[in-house]
Amino acid sequence: MAPLCASAQIDIVQKKTTEAEEELHTFDALLVRSATKVTEELLEKMPNLKIIGRAGVGVDNIDVDAATKRGIVVINAPNGNTISAAEHTFAMMAALVRRIPQAHISVKSREWNRSAFVGNELFGKKLGIIGFGRIGSEVAKRARAFGMSVHVYDPFLTKERAEKLGVSIHSLDEVLTVADIITVHTPLTKETRGLLGTENLAKTKKGVYLINCARGGIIDEQALIPFLESGHVAGVALDVFEQEPPGDHPLLAFDNVIVTPHLGASTVEAQLNVATQVAEELLHFFEGRPVTSSINLPALSKDVYEKIQAFYHLGQKLGLIASQFMNIPVQELSVTYAGTVADLETTYITRSLLAGFLRPRVASTVNEVNAAMVAKERGITYGEKFSDETHGYANCISLTVHGENKTFTIKGTHVPNYGDRIVHFDGVAIDFAPEGHLLYIQHQDRPGMIGKVGNVLGAHDVNIATMQVGRQEAGGKAMMILSLDKPVDDEVLQALAQIDDIETVKRLEA
Ligand SMILES: NC(=O)C1=CN([C@@H]2O[C@H](COP(=O)(O)OP(=O)(O)OC[C@H]3O[C@@H](n4cnc5c(N)ncnc54)[C@H](O)[C@@H]3O)[C@@H](O)[C@H]2O)C=CC1
Ligand SMILES: O=C(O)CCC(=O)C(=O)O
């Protein structure tokens, strides 16, 4: 939290959400650990919210879809508590096989019963790790130091990464059948909920030990009971539960089930790490810098962000202008990247363009977070293409909008140390900066048109900052793009539209 406390821009209110009912509508950011449930209902009471920070890894206490729909960025602190969670898993493993908690209770009860607590060595045992991300791989390092062999199941782990980490990948069935001890380190998802249920537990070795320091529900708690009763499962270590706190859970009655109250990340070091990580990210967000640990935005390193920043801005302007020009229902946006921009992380630029396009059409917040979702809701599809056609520019982004009976194309380029330029507008080569109050005039290419437009604007006290003209061919379709010092009202538009040979006049705000 220190980075937040040091910031003059941030006011911190530390309360439970239930104690802040009256102020909920005022907050821009919400920071939580795992206990606060960030539901759709809570988000409805927080219309100002822009970002939710989870000081930890799992975001299962946050309705990420509901946040995304509202354009709220969700960030977490993905690695601040990795070591603590891995060490806790290892402590649980040692405690489980050596029956330390049971022995501890016995001695505290004034007993001295050494023969009752004969355990097993970890050395030489096969450890099955399900989920080989940050924590799983740290657990593996410690296991190897203890002389264990490590058997990994993770369907998303590449062979290269497995080799780099010195483990071999196995199928889930292989891990289940060979492991003496199985520890789970996946997120809780539709696929992992109940992963160790009746069917898979039946495949495990008789006498297997199980550990869950990830999320309650990955091991099916009800399904475990008969396996503990029969002695098939020799012992279980749980830091997490399907319901927390678990209350009077039947598993707690088993002597060989050892438990902690979700303590994996509860170390001084981990709490400091996650709080600092999430606070720094939050400050970056409000300073308009990239956030690297967002759940609902593509991850961007500082390096990548710096490269795409200019195009991100250009994309937004292309979308914004196109949307106003095509103020009719549209079905499809097609974005083409050419030149240097084509080698960058274009997903983010496309999202920015899409957000720019949707903004004039949507009453609610629309930004890079929810742009794809809002487009889908409105039946607008979009796609990216890459081309070699740069039209002589170092980089070029083209947007083609397909609407009912009309297609519109706009192209732009970014010139370093100069700015964004629109270089092609509705079939006409032109060159203007997409900034401020713009006026689009489409007319027949005739002498004297510039003067007539100037006279009307002058008569209405509208000052022209810049004027760019272009045409398809001499005497054919021509256009002017004017940049004005102030927006023009409908009366000015009508006066311009009455000039002979002017076909269309549109205000465009950029
Ligand atoms: N007990 C505690 O206090 C703490 C618990 N956690 C929890 O630990 C878990 C792991 O965290 P990290 O290692 O940081 O996450 P991570 O995202 O780095 O790793 C998760 C791994 O699970 C794999 N995975 C996803 N679906 C899978 C499936 N169906 N089968 C097998 N593998 C699958 C992914 O490919 C990934 O490699 C999370 O559930 C997290 O919430 C994290 C920190 C503290
Ligand atoms: O400290 C916490 O909030 C729990 C940590 C945890 O479970 C996580 O980071 O996923």
Q: What attributes characterize this protein structure?
A:
single chain; 510 residues; alpha/beta; Rossmann fold; 60s Ribosomal Protein L30, Chain: A; 4 domains; 7-stranded parallel sheet; 16 helices; 20 strands; elongated; binds 1,4-dihydronicotinamide adenine dinucleotide
Q: Overview of this structure, please?
A:
- The protein is α/β, with parallel strands linked by helices and 510 residues long.
- It folds into four domains: 1-80 and 269-287, Rossmann fold, CATH 3.40.50; 81-259, NAD(P)-binding Rossmann-like Domain (Rossmann fold); 300-435, D-3-phosphoglycerate dehydrogenase, domain 3 (60s Ribosomal Protein L30, Chain: A), CATH 3.30.1330; 438-509, ACT domain (Alpha-Beta Plaits).
- It is 32% helix and 24% strand.
- It is built from 16 helices and 20 strands.
- Strands 6-5-4-7-8-9-10 form a seven-stranded parallel β-sheet, with helices on both faces. The chain has a six-stranded mixed β-sheet with strand order 12-11-13-14-15-16, with helices on one face. Strands 18-19-17-20 form a four-stranded antiparallel β-sheet, sandwiched between helices.
- Helix 4 (82-98) packs across helix 6, helix 12 (302-325) packs parallel to helix 13 and helix 13 (346-358) crosses helix 14 (371-377).
- The model has no long low-confidence stretch (mean pLDDT 94).
